[in-house]
Amino acid sequence: MSSPARQEPLRQGLTYGFLAYLVWGFFPVYFKALHGIPPLEVVAHRIVWSVLFLLVLVAATGCWGEVRTAFASRRVLLTLIGSTTLITINWLVFIYAVEQGQVLQSSLGYFITPLVNVLLGMIFLRERLRPLQMISLLLAVTGVGLLTARVGAVPWISLGLAASFGLYGLLRKTAHVESLAGLLVETILTGPLALAYLIWLGTHGQGAFPAAVDQGALWLPLAGVLTATPLLLFAAAARRLRLATIGFLQYLTPSLQFALAVFAYGEQFTPTHMVTFILIWSGLALYTADAVRTFRNPAASRDAERT
Fold first, then answer.
1. If you average pLDDT over every residue of the chain, what do you get?
2. pTM assigned to the model
3. Distance (Å, whole) CA 236 – CA 209
4. Less packed terminus of the chain by CB within 10 Å, N or C?
């Protein structure tokens, strides 16, 4: 058995990651309620309300020192500028996908993202895969390949979501800043632009909030909590887990979105989708079994930095 000191970060990381991906899995339900509101305006609201929510959290926890340290470090600040850009792109693409009734393609993007995480971990962090992990990765690659072929065209929504969030996870893992402070810095970096855009919309009579009640505009303030909470959980998980582990945990989000697209929103479900689902979850089962075995017998993963 591994020591309690080694087990605790793993338990915390798995819990944080599971909760983050669970919330993200049900995001289409929220953004469907904002039907008719332009994606750029929704993203601006997400940023502004997130700043307010995070300021309250930082004030309550008293971690202003960590925020000042992040702004004072050129390396950390540059990393957070990069991560801010990537997560903003990810938000725009995802909201556009929901608005266009492409939840199934967004789920494909998040099915691909774990593969991007594994690849980035191997390239940049020198993370190694054990035999069962490699088999599980090949099963997932096969499943995603089948689903991609079924789309019949270049799935730019899927690829954009996968690339932007995979790189975001890499940058947040390497940023030497705690999750709450780092997320506040990220939102502050884009906050002034988002606020200026919303003010411009308001002065030109084009803003949805609070006028467009029929389009779900009154739900917009909730965007701060829904945006910040899973990102905080994800950042905390990323600091405690290998990118490969994060990658396979992430299958929870696209699986939930997959189910919503097919059973709630009536998007097409074919035998190819069924085969893809079976392959991906078979890979996840193998990876989980390997992770449990390693957790109980850490000697089996002595070549890995962390599990």
1. 82
2. 0.78
3. 32
4. N
